[in-house]
Specification:
Mean pLDDT: 93
CATH topology of the largest domain: Rossmann fold
Number of helices: 17
Number of domains: 2
Shape: globular
Low-confidence stretches: 457-464
Structural class: alpha/beta
Helix content: 40-55%
Largest sheet: 9 strands, mixed
CATH class of the largest domain: Alpha Beta
CATH architecture of the largest domain: 3-Layer(aba) Sandwich
Bound molecules: adenosine-5'-diphosphate-glucose
Distance between the termini: 31 Å
Strand order of the largest sheet: 3-4-2-1-5-6-7-9-8
Radius of gyration: 23 Å
CATH superfamily of the largest domain: Glycogen Phosphorylase B
């Protein structure tokens, strides 16, 4: 079998116990093919642009990493990837900032990555590139003569063309997608937005069909909904240590533990969630001392103003709720602004009666799936899920809510904490079956099958 080369902005150690789903999935795919994982090593140093690639073996995988210079970090990573693309792809034009230097930095890091990768790969290698930081990478590799099979998976949403229209030079950026053989999206909504963009940008007379031919290349665009490693999460949630943690959590008067876990990112809808929780306390006073919201939100991209602002806003909101409703024996909101080990998270999910997952926009959202996997099968909790998370497409037995509507979320919270066992069992059984079916191995295998198999490309006369 041909060797696999995975490329992503950051590289994780696939053998580390605390590694999350993606590191494990990518690690498994790489071990199948004695592969290479290429990306930034997380370091910033002034000689970065001259430094070579560092190669290291970890559990059957070669990690190929390089540092970034300060200006590359400021332009490629902070400037274009996270100040322009991240907000635009999450439908937040109000937060997007466009700057020609940032775009130049983005192009130049993609060029530098391409040069380093071209020197590492053989013609028979298959290359799988991840996420919005690296959209033009295949086009840069093609310029250097690479004829390998190259795939791209977008972890975040693909917005409607009407939003993309606001991005300067979007024609250049999205044209580079045509250098890929396979382009993967999380949901049908994302794929349909992409198809509409292609139709509009090419002034196509009718709907595009896939595999899609553009010039001499053919590209298959398709959905590959990402999942989790279900069994390892269940195991983590049920260790003796997890059981002991749950006993500590549930010892007091509070019966209804509601949990939220995400990076502190404006796409995750945390201020709206806190306002909805406040509405719940206002409208259902009988639930007050019985209910606590635990929100775990570690810092992320703290150098960007939008992230600093949301941190302040959340601190104010949680302080105001605790000040208005709390008592000497009850703190309604417990807000933890740091990262928590995965096994602790699994235990907290298992010990919480409600999983509150209400992003304003999310590619998929793995926390929703982890919450379902961690539940006691004979006494499961209830998942409340935003209709704007990609996960909502195949988790319809969750209580699906509009995260902007505080009254609706408050009502869903009340329904969740008062739901009878029969209904909880029914909903959870169906959700777990689907989380299991669409797990991380299914995602990896579906993508790799299309990427490795040139047969997914039709004969030329069908696509002309
Ligand atoms: P994220 O935006 O990071 O991922 P998500 O899918 O929820 O969002 O994955 C987060 C992961 O980090 C989960 O495994 C979660 O358990 C873990 N995590 C969250 N908070 C943590 C904490 N405090 N401590 C430790 N671990 C924590 C992007 C897209 C998503 C898409 C994924 C995968 O934004 O939409 O689902 O990629 O494609």
């Amino acid at each position: 079998m041909s060797r696999l080369v995975v490329v992503s902005n950051r590289v994780a150690d696939p053998t580390a116990v605390q590694s999350g789903g993606l590191a494990v999935a990518v690690g498994d795919a790489l071990q199948d093919g004695n592969g290479i994982w290429f990306g930034w090593n997380g370091e910033i140093n002034e000689n970065a642009e001259k430094s070579g690639v560092n190669l290291e073996r970890r559990g059957g995988v070669t990690l190929a990493t390089l540092p970034l210079s300060q200006s590359e970090y400021d332009t490629y990573y902070l400037g274009y990837s996270n100040r322009a693309l991240w907000p635009v792809f999450h439908y937040r034009l109000d937060l997007a900032e466009f700057d020609i230097q940032a775009l130049e930095g983005y192009r130049s890091v993609n060029r530098r990555f391409a040069k380093s990768i071209a020197a590492l790969i053989d013609p028979s290698d298959v290359v799988w590139i991840h996420d919005y930081h690296l959209i033009p990478l295949a086009a840069e590799l093609r310029k250097l003569g690479a004829e390998n099979r190259i795939g791209f998976f977008l972890h975040i949403p693909f917005p409607p063309p009407e939003i993309i229209a606001a991005v300067p030079d979007h024609g250049w950026l999205f044209d580079t997608l045509h250098a890929y053989d396979v382009v993967g999206f999380q949901t049908e909504q994302d794929l349909s937005n992409f198809n509409r963009y292609v139709e509009q940008s090419m002034a196509s007379a009718g709907p595009v069909t896939h595999p899609f031919r553009n010039g001499t290349r053919k590209m298959l665009a398709k959905t590959y909904p990402i999942g989790i490693d279900v069994d390892s999460f269940i195991t983590m949630a049920h260790t003796p240590k997890a059981t002991e943690r749950i006993q500590r959590l549930t010892r007091g008067e509070v019966r209804n533990h509601v949990i939220g876990v995400e990076r502190l990112d404006y796409s995750k809808g945390l201020p709206d969630r806190f306002r909805s929780f406040r509405r719940f306390l206002e409208q259902y006073p009988d639930q007050r001392k019985k209910t606590v919201l635990m929100q775990i939100a570690p810092p992320t991209r703290g150098e960007l103003a939008a992230y600093a602002e949301i941190r302040t806003e959340l601190e104010q909101l949680s302080g105001a709720i605790n000040g208005a409703f709390g008592d000497f024996d009850w703190t309604p909101v417990r807000y933890i602004h740091r990262s928590v080990p995965r096994d602790t998270l699994a235990a907290l999910f298992r010990g919480s009666k409600v999983g509150l997952v209400t992003p304003l926009r999310d590619g998929m959202n793995l926390v929703a799936k982890e919450y379902v996997a961690a539940q006691e099968p004979d006494d499961p909790g209830v998942l409340i899920l935003s209709r704007f998370a990609g996960a909502a497409a195949d988790m319809e037995e969750a209580l699906i809510v509009n995260p902007y509507d505080a009254d609706e979320v408050a009502k869903a919270l009340y329904n969740a904490v008062t739901m009878e066992l029969d209904e909880r069992l029914d909903r959870h059984g169906k959700l777990l079956a689907r989380v299991r079916k669409n797990d991380i191995a299914a995602w990896r295998m579906a993508f790799m099958q299309d990427l490795r198999n040139p047969e997914t490309q039709p004969p030329p006369d069908q696509t002309a």
